[in-house]
Amino acid sequence: MNAMDANNMVCCPYNKAHKMLRKKLQQHILKCREIYKDEVELLVCPFNKAHLIPEPDFLQHTRSCIDRKIIAHYQHNAPATINEETKHEKIETEENWDDEYVPDYDPQQYVVNANIVREPNGMFPSQRKAFIKEERKRLLGEDSDGETSGSTQRVKAPTKTKANSTVTQRSAPYKLPNRNR
């Protein structure tokens, strides 16, 4: 089935030169309504919102609209009757969701306890390094430092200031060894 089939193509009610797929008509009407709001006044069909009709033709359209039969079908046919065959018994359950206390779901708490790899987005390089190190410990175990040197520097956790911005406390800069020449 070709998407550009003639049955799927429709014309814009505001400008007959605009042709598009039927499924794009509603979106297109919103745009053209703004462009032609001062030039063309169209009324909306009560049976199909995609039918926009000039005022002189509106009464004739409402009498002969092809979508009118859908509404007429429900107006003139009797509603379905419920009898013993179509009824079902009331479903009883012992479960009562109002009586049970269930704590709220905290996604951050879940991720900390689950075996999920988190990414250090939006962190300074020192924070990112510390975060990755903590993630390795959390996921692989306490003894998996991955460090070969004996000296490790720890970066303190971010603290909040009065302006609620995150500030990282950095350790002292590296001390260069004395080189006596």
- Helix/strand structural class: alpha+beta
Shape: flat
What is the percentage of strand-forming residues?
5-15%
Rg, alpha carbons: 35 Å
What is the helix content?
25-40%
Q: Give the distance, in angstroms, between the N- and C-terminal Cα atoms.
A: 86 Å
Largest sheet data: 2 strands, antiparallel
Q: How many helix segments?
A: 5
Question: N-to-C SSE series?
Answer: EEHEEHHHHEE
Query: How would you state the average pLDDT, rounded?
Result: 78
InterPro entries: TRM13/UPF0224_CHHC_Znf_dom (IPR022776), UPF0224_FAM112_RNA_Proc (IPR051591), Znf_C2H2_sf (IPR036236)
Biased composition (Polar residues): 161-171
Organism: Drosophila hydei
Region (Disordered): 135-181
How is the topology of this model organized?
Layout: E1 9-11, E2 19-21, H1 25-35, E3 42-44, E4 52-54, H2 55-64, H3 68-76, H4 107-113, H5 125-140, E5 159-160, E6 166-167
Antiparallel strand pairs: 1-2, 3-4, 5-6
List keywords for this structure.
181 residues, alpha+beta, two-stranded antiparallel sheet, 5 helices, zinc, UPF0224_FAM112_RNA_Proc, Gametocyte-specific factor 1 homolog, metal-binding
Could you provide a short overview of the structure?
Residues 161-171 have a biased composition (Polar residues). This protein is 29% helix and 9% strand. With 181 residues, the protein is of the alpha+beta class.
Report on this model:
- The protein has helices at about 25-35, 55-65, 70-75, 105-115, 125-140; strands at about 10, 20, 40-45, 50-55, 160, 165.
- The chain has about 180 residues and is α+β, with helices and mostly antiparallel strands.
- It has a two-stranded antiparallel sheet with strand order 1-2.
- A hairpin with a 5-residue loop joins β5 and β6 (about 165).
- The model is unreliable at about 150-155 and about 160-165 (pLDDT under 50).
- InterPro entries: TRM13/UPF0224_CHHC_Znf_dom (IPR022776), UPF0224_FAM112_RNA_Proc (IPR051591), Znf_C2H2_sf (IPR036236).
- Pfam families: zf-U11-48K.
- This is Gametocyte-specific factor 1 homolog.
